[in-house]
Amino acid sequence: MKNAHWHGFTQMAGLEPLVIESAQGCWLQTVDGRRLFDGVSSLWCNVHGHRNPHIDAAVEQQLKKVSHITTLGMSCETTERLATKLAEITPGDLGHVFFSSDGSSAVEAALKMAFQYWQQCETAEVGSTSLNSTSLSSTSLSTGKTKYLALSGAYHGDTTGAVSLGGIKYFHKLFAPILFTPIRGPIPCTYRYPDGVTPETACEHYAREIENLLEQHHHELAAVVIEPLVQGAAGIITHPEGLLLRLRQLCDQYNVLLICDEVAVGFGRTGKLFACEQENVTPDILCLGKGLTGGYLPMAATIARPHIYEAFLAEIKESKQFFHGHTFAGNPLAAAAALASIELLETTTILEDVTTKSAFLIEQLKPLLDHPHVGNIRGRGLMIGIELVTDKSTRAAFDPGLLMGKRVCDEAMKGGVWLRPLSDVVVVMPPLVSTDDELDFLANVVINSIEKVCEPSSVVRV
Fold it and tell me: How wide is the angle at C-alpha 302 spanned by C-alphas 296 and 305, nearest 5°?
């Protein structure tokens, strides 16, 4: 049946689907015989390439033991080892791992975890009053810390709570009637600064804006939720250096939890195992997904610090357990893949090589800096965005109807590279194991595609 598979974020009318038959390393093989370089790591999650022998073997070995059991009151030895490993390798005292199936679910769990925490912790700040847990009643839901602060341009997933945090018009406007409304912070962009703001003053400017919001709303805020360092779906928006650390300090000052969504930026993408490590920050709750299993199987994790976890400990009759759970949370096959992926990150030079490979890829893309329709090349590590603009001097965007980003990616596929844009930002996010030759090939195809699609006469004809 035609279009039996309904694709996400994809207009199905007239779609000619790209169907993959097999994959090896950083390359995809289509059913019609084309060979394509996986330029976006299968939606930002493939860390070690496809069919990595070490991860393949781990999954095969786990299949001989058990493929799935619930984690509601029981577990699997493999899943227990993964939880312990994640507690060991995540920043600071993050030590209590709640598993789910995807990044959106990890964020959803974090929202509910933070919400329930403030209803159960020993002291909860409500305005200028400190209430102990026994005095909290149903009225605390309207007067207590039940709201969230999220950045403009935020994207945290597609489930209802995660969508509510989001600030991307095309993703979220339609569903506004069924969403909650967060306190909305700025978009800390290092390409389009507000008037009077310079690269040197940007960090403090954005920090002051957020502090003003915390000062006004801290009594009702459960948490600040951010994508550290880079806002992915907003268009690979990079934050000023030092902003993450300032946010940690402000959350401590105003008694608000900090939730870091590292679904996209975790597991080496920015050059450290976790992006928070770039500024020595430990969030109260950390959300992981995508690269957790090396891109092999669906798995996500929401990891809490001890003070969060301990607020849920009590006699069963007190009903303080975390009221949340997933059928396939902590799946043993996914856990086996995750352990094998982490082992590769710990025993090879993959992480150390990200910085070198990133510098090499940026150098290969440098000819685009002189292109009249390339406004900016930005990113952290192997997470790069190339923004197309109609006017370089004013940074004015193209008419969205021209679909310039999509056209560039369509052209790249003709050259042998699979890319997926974010509006008119061409996303370049290859697997971390890409070789210099593969990165050189990737850069050449991207350059040629942009030059062809954005050639002045071509832009005028559209």
Answer: 140
